[in-house]
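User: quick one, sequence for these tokens?
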């Protein structure tokens, strides 16, 4: 069934129309890629879905519940979590503590429990720690739990962000250019991780420039250009779309031929 229904999203920044009447439907248990040239509106769309931007028009519904107007923290509690194009970790904290911060949105101990170390708060922390270790094990970082986040290699920091997002127990996970800066081997590992997320029952929407990754792991692909949706379908269908070849794939091939 449908997990996310996005209808008629229009996002303007002054005279710039970043998203122009964009709609899409995301099915539960699928990997849905959003691709397009630089400046096509991909990250803006993720910012709308996660509550960072409030568009001038449109609707975003998760399992039939409207997300528009909710704070990002409330949207995370509702079951939608994300990573960012630019890595946002607490570099001085340990790997484990970074993941525990992600799970803290679901705690109920409150300020007094934190200040006075109530039994309920201690129980919540124990649960958070155990779940954080499970998330780290899922992305292959369990052995690095006590190291400072700043000591991790770049690709490992990307995986740590995914683990932190998993700690919120999302139904829908948004990944913004997760393969950026990765070599082919690291990108292949990321592809496996995305497949395992889907197998775990987590729906994934991701923005990515790595065409091989997109076509290898996606169930469905939406293509944006100048803020408008120009194509949508299975990867094999999108690859054959003249509009996509002209707007995105063709440009990528032209750039590669001149490299």
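Assistant:
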């Amino acid at each position: 069934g449908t997990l996310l229904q996005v209808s008629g999203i229009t996002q303007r920044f002054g005279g710039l129309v970043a998203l122009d009447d964009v709609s899409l439907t995301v099915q539960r248990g699928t990997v849905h890629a959003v691709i397009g040239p630089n400046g096509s509106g991909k990250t803006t769309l993720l910012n709308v879905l996660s509550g960072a931007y409030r568009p001038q028009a449109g609707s975003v519904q998760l399992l039939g519940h409207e997300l528009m107007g909710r704070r990002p923290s409330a949207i995370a509690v509702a079951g939608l979590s994300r990573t960012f194009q630019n890595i946002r970790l607490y570099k001085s904290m340990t790997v484990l503590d970074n993941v525990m911060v992600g799970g803290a949105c679901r705690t109920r101990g409150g300020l007094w429990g934190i200040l006075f170390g109530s039994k309920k708060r201690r129980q919540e922390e124990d649960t958070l720690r155990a779940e954080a270790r499970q998330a780290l094990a899922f992305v292959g970082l369990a052995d690095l739990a006590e190291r400072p986040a700043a000591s991790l290699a770049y690709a490992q920091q990307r995986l740590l962000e995914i683990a932190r997002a998993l700690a919120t127990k999302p139904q829908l996970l948004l990944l913004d250019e997760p393969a950026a800066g990765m070599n082919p081997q690291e990108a292949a590992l990321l592809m496996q991780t995305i497949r395992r997320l889907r197998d775990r029952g987590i729906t994934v929407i991701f923005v990515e420039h790595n065409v091989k990754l997109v076509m290898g792991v996606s169930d469905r692909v939406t293509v944006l250009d100048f803020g408008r949706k120009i194509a949508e379908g299975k990867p094999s269908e999108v690859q054959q779309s003249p509009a996509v070849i002209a707007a995105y794939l063709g440009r990528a091939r032209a750039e590669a031929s001149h490299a």
